[in-house]
Structure prediction request, 414 residues.
Amino acid sequence: MFEQQLGELIAGTQGGTCWALAYVNIDRFREINNAMGVRAGDEALAQFSRRLLDLTGNRDLVCRLGGDEFALVIQNHCAREQLEGTVARLVNDISRPIVVSGGEIELRVSIGVSLFPADGRAYEELIRAACSAMNQAQRDGGGVYRFFDRSVNIMEERRLTLQQGIRKGLQRGEFFMVYQPKYSIGRQQVVGAEALVRWNHPALGLISPVEFIPLAEGNGEVIEMSEWIVDTVCRQIVEWKGRGIRIVPVSINISPVHFWRGSLVDTLRSAVQRWQVDPALLPIEVTEGVVMDSSEKTMHVLEELRALGFHISIDDFGTGYSSMKYLSDLPISELKIDRSFVMQIPEDGVETNGASTAIPRAIIQLATEFGLSVVAEGVETQAQKQFLVEHGCDVIQGYLFSKPLSPEDFASLL
Prediction:
């Protein structure tokens, strides 16, 4: 009925007339149902509906689309400033607490607004635009309103396309691995590599892992991706070995999602058994937040990996929260200095402000005291390299020595 009446409104709108469609969502309504019961939730929805009707009167079209989502047409508002004032008041007025039999409920609503005819001339276009704006309001923390922004919508469509394409991309061979060398300055040779996943999307081209990894973590498909990475790297090591190429350890990044939710130990154990690869050739890089979690499960997984022969490296060390007690107790082998700290090393190598290099110096000293290896990431200049050498960091990784390489180019480098 709402679609029909909105269609009639669109058909009857004269040239030069404009109005707005507001998409209203009660934030975290499921929590209300869980905490107070479905009956209290239904009562809250009924009161919320009456409140909407009281605020809009007979002049506007109001509909409950389903669940905790509503829509209303705000007419006779061509001026953006006037419409913003109306929507802001609406957010404030309908967000007042509601009293139900189970107690008082604090409400927060997110509202997305689309404009006729600027954002669409048909029901589907207008409702989709308003919903997109509402989603943006929720991503911005909720309890706010947002107007439809076509550029934001394009990004949202891209995000959805990528999110839905990850699993198919793994099945179709769209993902591939590159290897960034780890170089020992003292020995003047490659002593390892970090395996990095890349995605060549058939329609969108090369996608940065900064963009697709969070999406894969959000829908849980990072576990399947991680399993593919482990298998691919093991197969690559076997292929290099078969060609008589000198083999060095190749570290693999493990997502916190896989560490906590997936069968990480089983994945790694079965991969090295299937490919007959020494676990010492597959250092496991995990974030600081993972290893500093003191839960029994975390400690158990780390101990199991060590027992199997895997070395554990803490990636981006110093960017999170570290406990010195856990650092001494954990079965780890390596600390990696994050690129953000390396970038603070002065270009001329002269330290005018010791504070700017305090963290990399402290990490190197800490690793030495604990008997751990240390690797500096993102080394791009001779000054950075010289600083690291002088302070006891021998192994570097970054564009100064080499960018990430294809398997063939890395084999040639070895």
Summary: The two ends are 69 Å apart (CA to CA).
